[in-house]
Amino acid sequence: MEISDFVSSILTIIGIIIAIWIPHKIKWEQLYSSLLGEYRSLDYAIALQGVIEFFTTECKNDVNQIEAKYKAHFINEITNRKGDINKENCLHFQRRLLSQFFWQLNLCANSFSIGKKRVSKDFTSSEAKLIKILIFIGEAIDSDETGLLYKDISSDERVRKSEHYKGQNKSLAKIYHVLEKSRRFIG
Is there a contact between 95 and 137 (Cβ–Cβ < 8 Å)? Predict the structure, then answer.
């Protein structure tokens, strides 16, 4: 093998690595950029304020009160107002928005492309305090044995393979079979 063949092989390998790496890096950068945009959005600000108000005002900064207060809040906002829910002022939707945001942020932090160091530069320990509140609210939902905060909507009826359906139901059946054996929790 001549030197030119060796150099050509090395350059080909480098080209393939770059061709794979660039789209991968772009994908993660787009996700992270989208999260930073969401962080600055009005929806995020409203959700942040709602969760902070709930914790400081209703729970009096006491995590031990979260379970009872969240349940009461949920009953007032969701159960008593069926069909008349204002999602901007609904603590349940605010919690879900923030939890999903931080779940995606965790994906970025654990990716090779973004990393924990970059995330820790762009976000502060104040977010960690917010995450702690979200964790305690999540535990309140998980520990609810009344079925009020988490409703089991399963049934014994089986969904057939997607080939048996048409249109949107075909797509729904495909994703159903992907998700049916997954865990209850993300992550």
Answer: yes
